[in-house]
Structure formats: C-alpha cells, structure tokens
Design brief:
This is GerMN domain-containing protein. With 305 residues, the chain is α+β, with helices and mostly antiparallel strands. Helix content is 26%, strand content 20%. It contains eight helices and six strands; from the N terminus they run H-H-H-E-E-E-E-H-E-H-H-E-H-H.
C-alpha cells in the first residue's frame, strides 16, 4: 500500500513538473519580440544643448553652425544586416582607448555596424566605406542587447532616410591601433542622430537614435500618417492609421484638405501639399528633405526641385 502511495505521489509530481514546464514554454513563446530599432534605442536622452535646430541644418551643403557640421550625404536605404563593429575597454573618447574582442567581458562600449543597402543617394555624396551599394552605420549596441537578438528581429528593421558622413572624415585624431584605423575607414556616422525609419509600409516614422521629444521636434507632423478627409482616395492603406509614439508630433500642422493653391509652409517646416491622403510619412519626409537639398544645391535629382 505504501508503495502504491509513493508511486501515485511520483506520478503527480511528474505531472505538475510537466504542466509547469509547458506553461513556462508557452509564456516565453507568447512574449512579443522586441523590434530591431527598439533594441538599439538609447536608454536615456541627452542632457546637453542641441547644436542644430531643424533637419535643414543637417542637410548636405547647409552652412555649418559653430562646431556643428551638416551631413555629407542623405540616403534612402533598407536595413539588410547587422555586424560586429568594434569594442573598447573604455570610452572611445579616452586618450588611448584599448580595442578588445567584440564579445569580450572587458568591453565597456560596443559599436555595432548596421548594414544599409543604399537605394538612392538623395543629396550630397557618400565617402569612403561606401562599397557594393551598401554602407555600414555605426550604432552603439546597448548593454543587454545581443547580435543574435538583433539579427532575429531584422524583419522589423525597415527602411528610411539616413543623414550620414564617413567616420574617417569626422575623426578628431588618428586612431592608435591599426584595427581602429581600419574600422574608421569602413563605417559611416549618423549625423545629428538623423535616422528616420519606416518599420512597415505606410507606418509613422520613428527616430530610434534620439528621444521622443527631439524626434517630434525634428519631424513635426511629417512623421505621421496623413489623416483621412472627405477628399481622400480609397487607396490609402489601413496600416497608416496607427502612428507610433516615438514619432508623435507636438503640432497639428496644416489641414489635409489644403489644396495646391496653398503652398505656405507649416510651423513644422512641412507643406500642406505633403499632407495629401495616401502619401506615406516617409514619402513626405523625402519630399521635404529634397526641397531642403534643392536650396543648398546638393540634391542629386534636380527634377525634385
């Protein structure tokens, strides 16, 4: 009898363990996967003073303001990969930062290389490091983020506009190690945190390298899907109706019903013409950016002017 009780207790314990294990697996499977750019978003926004006021200031060919230099190129591209870049045992602004293996426990800072396929150079010219139709964008890999996790979420990386310059053109001093020198020659830097991403077609833009308030200031209502109106065409996609908070505007901008006879710019720098229903936020930002490049004389397609 005692053996039967022990056997029953063992079966019950095994059943509980099995159910618990299945529940844990189900819970893990139900956890939503973090998007690519949310993993690279900085934990905290900057506390210093901004060196520029608008996207016009980072447009290639814009007049430098004090110590701030505008981007050398504006490209439209698609994120196609992420690679290990370089890791340092101390901050890379230290007098002699020591390069360590990328996955080393000694690494105090890691810079990943986000691989961007260049679909079009909209303004300016790309520098050294542009090869095979691609550039590698230097982006800090936050602690707790892994390359495997980033690669698994590449399907959410999307496409967008990138204000960039060659890292080699921006170095303050020659890197001490050959490895760091080769790295500087291979990557581009996002200028003014100027990365604006459409994670899925027609979605609101996100600015993953800056904080939410700064993103709203730079994008204004350009980053939002255009609201529908009585004159809207039925082709406007349903996936444009849910803007993400990171691109939310602090200004209402112009009415979507404004016609081509009302070309005055809005307070955010956009044009009522860009608010037409069916225009994606990325298309509106592209148009705005190209007009700015027309003014600086760096636009690559004069038909956009």
């Amino acid at each position: 009898m005692r053996n039967l009780k022990l056997l029953a207790a063992g079966v019950a314990a095994a059943s509980i363990a099995s159910v618990t294990g299945c529940a844990a697996q189900q819970s893990a499977a139900e956890q939503p996967q973090r998007s690519f750019w949310s993993q690279l978003h900085p934990d905290a926004g900057g506390t210093g003073q901004y060196l520029f006021d608008s996207l016009d200031d980072i447009t290639p060919g814009a007049r430098p303001s004090g110590t701030f230099r505008p981007a050398a190129a504006l490209v439209e591209g698609t994120v196609v990969g992420v690679e290990p870049g370089i890791a340092y045992a101390s901050d890379d602004d230290a007098p002699t930062p020591r390069v360590v293996p990328y996955e080393s426990a000694e690494a105090a800072i890691r810079w990943a290389s986000v691989v961007v396929r260049v679909d079009k150079v909209l303004a300016g010219k790309l520098g050294r490091g542009y090869s095979g139709g691609q550039i590698r964008l230097r982006v800090e890999q936050p602690t707790g983020t892994t390359l495997d996790g980033l690669r698994q979420s590449l399907g959410t990386a999307g496409r967008g506009l990138f204000y960039v310059d060659s890292a080699l053109a921006r170095v303050k001093r020659r890197a001490a190690s050959p490895q760091a020198q080769a790295y500087q020659a291979s990557v581009h830097l996002p200028i003014g945190q100027g990365v604006f991403i459409e994670e899925k077609p027609g979605a609101a833009l996100v600015a993953p390298l800056t904080d939410e308030n700064r993103a709203a200031q730079l994008l204004g209502d350009t980053g939002e899907p255009a609201p529908t109106s009585t004159s809207a065409t039925p082709s406007a996609g349903p996936d444009t109706a849910n803007p993400t908070p990171s691109a939310r505007s602090s200004s209402t901008g112009a009415s979507p019903s404004a016609g081509p006879g009302s070309p005055q710019p809005t307070a955010t720098g956009g044009s009522p013409q860009l608010r037409a229903a069916g225009d994606s936020p990325l298309a509106r930002l592209r148009g705005r950016a190209q007009r700015s490049a027309c003014e600086t004389g760096t636009v690559t397609d004069r038909s956009a002017c």
